[in-house]
């Protein structure tokens, strides 16, 4: 088995993709349900301006991230990966949220992996720098950019990324499926 460099997005990949809806629904006084969440950009889902979304994040981002729920099996499988591979969290979260991210990781007993807070959804350069063998992602645009650069992407299935289908992208529906694909890559 070879040791892989695994880059892992956090929001919608480690966290439940819809766990933030309660925070957004309360703030914007809407009742968006997971089945309504058909676009990755929340400003479009909630029909608000980007400035309104930025203001929401400034006032609610910390608590929202601390309240995030971890997907089923992600905790245990991340620990398995941590023991066998090089694991990195590569997130679009702003650098200012890094302490919050680490606090959330600790409160959920996640492995103490290095966090790369990019403040941008563009992750190709970080993936290349980390010599990424496989990237776990939910954002459709990120997945296509990474795959277009020849990086293997495991795309966590969500309502907002169902239209993505291209070379180097494998759609996964659970962390058990992620584990299976990573084990296959490590043994190839």
Automatic annotation (TrEMBL):
Keyword set for this entry? Hydrolase
UniProt xrefs under PANTHER family: NUCLEOTIDASE YQFW-RELATED (PTHR35134)
Q: Which residues cross the membrane?
A: none
**High-level lineage:** Bacteria, Bacillati, Bacillota, Clostridia, Peptostreptococcales
* UniProt KW Transcription regulation keyword: no
Q: Which GO terms describe its biological process?
A: deoxyribonucleotide catabolic process
- This protein's record includes keyword tRNA processing: no
Name this polypeptide is given? Nucleotidase
Q: Which GO terms describe its molecular function?
A: 5'-nucleotidase activity
What family does this belong to?
Belongs to the 5'(3')-deoxyribonucleotidase family.
Which organism does this record belong to?
Peptoclostridium litorale DSM 5388
């Amino acid at each position: 088995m070879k040791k892989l460099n695994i880059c892992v997005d956090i929001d919608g990949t480690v966290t439940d993709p819809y766990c933030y809806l309660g925070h957004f629904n309360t703030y914007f006084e809407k009742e968006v349900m997971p089945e309504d969440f058909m676009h990755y950009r929340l400003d479009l889902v909630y029909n608000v301006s980007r400035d309104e979304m930025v203001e929401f994040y400034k006032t609610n981002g910390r608590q929202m991230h601390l309240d995030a729920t971890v997907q089923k099996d992600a905790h245990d499988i991340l620990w398995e990966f941590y023991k066998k591979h090089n694991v990195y969290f590569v997130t679009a979260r702003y650098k200012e949220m890094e302490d919050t991210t680490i606090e959330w990781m600790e409160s959920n007993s996640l492995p103490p992996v290095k966090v790369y807070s990019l403040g941008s959804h563009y992750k190709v350069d970080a993936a290349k720098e980390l010599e990424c063998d496989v990237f776990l992602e939910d954002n459709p645009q990120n997945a296509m950019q990474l795959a277009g650069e020849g990086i293997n992407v495991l795309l966590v299935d969500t309502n907002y990324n169902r239209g993505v289908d291209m070379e180097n992208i494998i759609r996964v529906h659970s962390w058990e499926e992620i584990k299976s694909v990573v084990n296959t890559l490590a043994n190839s």
